[in-house]
Amino acid sequence: MLDPKTLYVTSVVMTAMMTLLNYLTWRANKDTPGTVLYIFYPMVLFAGIIGFALHSHFQQWQTIGVANGLLFAASMLHCWAISQFLGVRDKAFQFYLIITGILFCALVYFSAVAPGLRQRILISDLQHIAEALLLLYYFIRYAHPLYPNGSIVYLIVLSFILCVFTGRTLLMGEINHANLLDSPWFTITLFFNGVLAPIFYATGMAILCNERREHNLNRLTEKAQQDLEIRGLFLSTVSHEIRTPLNGILGSAQLVLNRIGDQASKAYCEAIINSAESLNLLIDKVLDYASLEQSDEVLAAEDIEFKSWLNNLCLLMTPMAEQRGLTFTLVYDMPEQVCYYCDQQKLRQILLNLVGNAIKFTDQGEVKICVELVKEGNMEHRVRFSVIDTGPGIEEEDIEKLTEPYVQSSAGKTKGGTGLGLAITARLLDKMGSQLEIISELDKGSSFSFDLTLTVGELSLVEKRHHNVDYATGLDVLLVEDLDLNRKIAIEFMAIDEHRIKLANDGQSAIEQLTKHAFDVVLLDMNLPDLTGQEVLKRLKNIAHKNRRTPFLAFTASLSPEEIKEYLALGIRDVVGKPIKQDKLRQAISNSQKAQTPDISVELSDTLYDESAVASLSGFSEDEVSSIYNEFVLSARTKLRHIQQLLDEDDQQCIKLLHRQASTALQLGFNRYGLTLKKIERRLLDKKRCDEELADAMVLWQQSLEAYLQYVRHQTVG
């Protein structure tokens, strides 16, 4: 065995080192309970070892009593520190204190009254056994589930201590001062308790603190995630709850606007409608931002034909730019035939946000998307996207803040908006491993750019692209439609086939467009706010315009035999019935470029609610679809009652309202209700009374609503 003096010196060094390590652990974990007490444990233990060394020289009972008392104090400090760290103060600790007190009294007795070396060693061993048993109990029951690694270190050393002191209690025979240092049990216990244990304890406490810190960080992360989810849920819930009365305000204001003739009152109603629509836009953006913060979805990589995909995207935005008198172009500096794997939905949302902002804030000049290849690798390309406008520019101090939520530039505050568009864009780019770079100069314009590393897709897909398809692509189309929902759906469908679209919201603007531009085909709504489609066609016959040979397609839900006969007599080439179906729209446009017999038939299932109608809204987000249905469902009964009230006052207004309601109902899948409204519209056009039919329509709407709600409940449960 080791020399006892060497062990004494080593144990002194180890306890001193433990003191230093415990101090460093405390400095890094000052808020952790028990770490301060743990610094004093090796210091008291160190004093006890020194006391035993002094006793070998003085041979006084006072020195041995003080030395043993210091060891008892060190033991209690050790247990107290661990109980503080674990936050435990139970009956086991109280029992340990009682046992320690009894043993200390016995120690004093066998030191001062009836001195006995063997008895003092036995008492010391029992005290160490009590300490080891308490700490083993704590680490097995409380610490191991939370701090497994640190607990393993403590369990190992405490098991050794328990075995050594239990062995000495049971196996060591009679001993005296003369042969104490020569006893192997003395050197064994000194080695484990004075040399080995301090290092294990210091290491174990450091590991425990690290695990506690990691546990706290994980708990804080989970809490932050929960807070984020709660905030997102709150925003979503509140936004949806706000939307319900907001749709009521919007619908009521539109109804009042249609009934009043006073221009001043109309201006107030229009202000209400504009404010409600702005608030609705804010709600949509808040929902987008909330869902983005909550979502941890993985990027969905799809193989897309890049140039064709960009062209389709630009076709969606071109009508909006042209309505504001702006030039909108795509500058494509990339290989003509290239495919990439990317999350096209997120990239689409990013570009639409940036282009939408550019068009909104640019009053004159141009907006362009520039796409260029920055770095070309074997399997990956670095592609830079830039959206450049000639708008008012952004002040330098505003640029850094623009990607924060609810922050707007001075131009944004003037034009209005939510302050969330660029924040959503920045979050999406962060998910895609990129960031938005903004360069702007006042009164000259701005550039919003970002770089993406895209994996090269299967180039063979480009070669297989349908160049010889059975339907027309890339035509110049004039879309004349006043209903926003129908306009959006038609643009989405036609952009897929790369048609270039111009918009007109009423008959007069359609005539102006037809006199200025030549089109390949015209989609004409037959019931516009100012003129009917028939009146537009009749006026065109009497003026000079550039579309004498251009085929016109009737865009309508009025499909009675008499009406179709009238359309064809006026020169309509084909009829695109509402609700809009992609296949029918594509076929009608293609047939208009050939000498094809028109296919007028529109198949609608005779059902209260057609579940397949949602598929026609595939170009809209889930929140937008929900908003569209909510607005219609919440206002349908009110609008029908308004029509009943107007019946004897203004039958022309009733016809217009019925037409709009029927078109929207059919588009959203309320087939039986929509067809009934079309029949009532037809009766009014024929100057017939329809009071009973309107009452029946009210009952039919209630049945249709129940069918729709049953479908929604089924979808929610599913």
From TrEMBL:
<feature type="transmembrane region" description="Helical">
    <location>
        <begin position="95"/>
        <end position="115"/>
    </location>
</feature>
<feature type="modified residue" description="4-aspartylphosphate">
    <location>
        <position position="525"/>
    </location>
</feature>
<protein>
    <recommendedName>
        <fullName>histidine kinase</fullName>
        <ecNumber>2.7.13.3</ecNumber>
    </recommendedName>
</protein>
<feature type="transmembrane region" description="Helical">
    <location>
        <begin position="121"/>
        <end position="140"/>
    </location>
</feature>
<keyword id="KW-0597">Phosphoprotein</keyword>
<keyword id="KW-0418">Kinase</keyword>
<dbReference type="InterPro" id="IPR036890">
    <property type="entry name" value="HATPase_C_sf"/>
</dbReference>
<feature type="domain" description="Response regulatory">
    <location>
        <begin position="476"/>
        <end position="593"/>
    </location>
</feature>
<keyword id="KW-0472">Membrane</keyword>
<feature type="transmembrane region" description="Helical">
    <location>
        <begin position="61"/>
        <end position="83"/>
    </location>
</feature>
<dbReference type="Pfam" id="PF02518">
    <property type="entry name" value="HATPase_c"/>
</dbReference>
<dbReference type="Pfam" id="PF00072">
    <property type="entry name" value="Response_reg"/>
</dbReference>
<dbReference type="InterPro" id="IPR011006">
    <property type="entry name" value="CheY-like_superfamily"/>
</dbReference>
<dbReference type="InterPro" id="IPR004358">
    <property type="entry name" value="Sig_transdc_His_kin-like_C"/>
</dbReference>
<dbReference type="InterPro" id="IPR005467">
    <property type="entry name" value="His_kinase_dom"/>
</dbReference>
<feature type="transmembrane region" description="Helical">
    <location>
        <begin position="152"/>
        <end position="173"/>
    </location>
</feature>
<feature type="transmembrane region" description="Helical">
    <location>
        <begin position="185"/>
        <end position="209"/>
    </location>
</feature>
<dbReference type="InterPro" id="IPR036641">
    <property type="entry name" value="HPT_dom_sf"/>
</dbReference>
<dbReference type="InterPro" id="IPR003661">
    <property type="entry name" value="HisK_dim/P_dom"/>
</dbReference>
<feature type="transmembrane region" description="Helical">
    <location>
        <begin position="6"/>
        <end position="24"/>
    </location>
</feature>
<feature type="transmembrane region" description="Helical">
    <location>
        <begin position="36"/>
        <end position="55"/>
    </location>
</feature>
<dbReference type="InterPro" id="IPR001789">
    <property type="entry name" value="Sig_transdc_resp-reg_receiver"/>
</dbReference>
<keyword id="KW-0808">Transferase</keyword>
<dbReference type="GO" id="GO:0000155">
    <property type="term" value="F:phosphorelay sensor kinase activity"/>
</dbReference>
<keyword id="KW-1133">Transmembrane helix</keyword>
<feature type="domain" description="Histidine kinase">
    <location>
        <begin position="237"/>
        <end position="456"/>
    </location>
</feature>
<dbReference type="Pfam" id="PF00512">
    <property type="entry name" value="HisKA"/>
</dbReference>
<keyword id="KW-0812">Transmembrane</keyword>
<dbReference type="InterPro" id="IPR003594">
    <property type="entry name" value="HATPase_dom"/>
</dbReference>
<dbReference type="InterPro" id="IPR036097">
    <property type="entry name" value="HisK_dim/P_sf"/>
</dbReference>
